Known about the structure:
This protein has 280 residues and is α/β, with parallel strands linked by helices. It has one domain: Vaccinia Virus protein VP39 (Rossmann fold, 3-Layer(aba) Sandwich), CATH 3.40.50. It has twelve helices and seven strands. It has helices spanning 10-19, 21-27, 44-59, 76-85, 96-104, 144-154, 174-187, 196-205, 217-220, 223-237, 239-247, 254-267; strands spanning 66-70, 88-93, 113-116, 129-135, 155-168, 209-215, 270-278. Helix 7 runs antiparallel to helix 12 (254-267) and helix 10 runs antiparallel to helix 12 (254-267). The longest helix is centred in the first third of the chain and has 16 residues, at 44-59. It is globular, with a radius of gyration of 18 Å.
Amino acid sequence: MIVPREEQSPQSVASHYDELDRWYLEIWGEHVHHGLWLRANETPAEATFNLIQRLVERADIQPGHKVCDVGCGYGGTARVLAREFGAQVTGLTLSQAQWAYAQSQSDGSGNPEILQRDFFSNSFADGSFDAAISIESSEHMPDKAAFFAELYRILKPGGRLAVYAWLARPEPRSWEVGHFLEPICREGRLPAMGDEQDYRELIEAAGFQTISFEEYSRRVKKTWPIIIGRMAKRLAWDKEARAFLFRGPANRIFAKTVFRIWFAYEWGSMRYGLFTARKP
């Protein structure tokens, strides 16, 4: 595991997303995660949908299934799962700003239900869900063993787990840790970044079976030059955006981190993939 020099708490994660709420919405939109380019010529919106659709397929999410979306952000994926795939979705976010946006997008049906709640204090009964998903939120979990154990607890027997994760390459060189991976953890509020084997061991230790991993590093890395291009265009004409980024909240350091992430993908220091597993 890559561990940052400064401890990252759930409060620091919530603060990160609350302080950068405007920036995330204006640059990323309501889906704050990678896109998946399967043909290489999709639009960013199509690539975003590809990522969600692939998760639905691998997690075998069917109409009427109860799904827990851990670290749901603005609720974008949860709304797609409810609207396009007929799932009954409960999402959790630490961020008050993200929760407030999700409430503003509600159609009044109660599906999805978005809660501002720490997953480790979720109050769900054992065996509540048919599927549990995490799209780029496991990285923010301070205790990953407890995270996977809790996912196991809330799933029904036979329930499916699907986790998209940022990963470190196995045995990264010291310069990769020093210039890319440790700063990405520290500036991105990640308590730790594991590699594929770390995650496999954690998932197995929690009790899951039929564990699989699909790597998509090459198919998602296009996300980062697109984000950087959007940032550059916005900063070129928007003085308020420049003031926000250069003299705004402490978490603005993440603007530098997007360059680190792009380079880390190009050098192979970071990987990205989808873990799936089943509760027996």
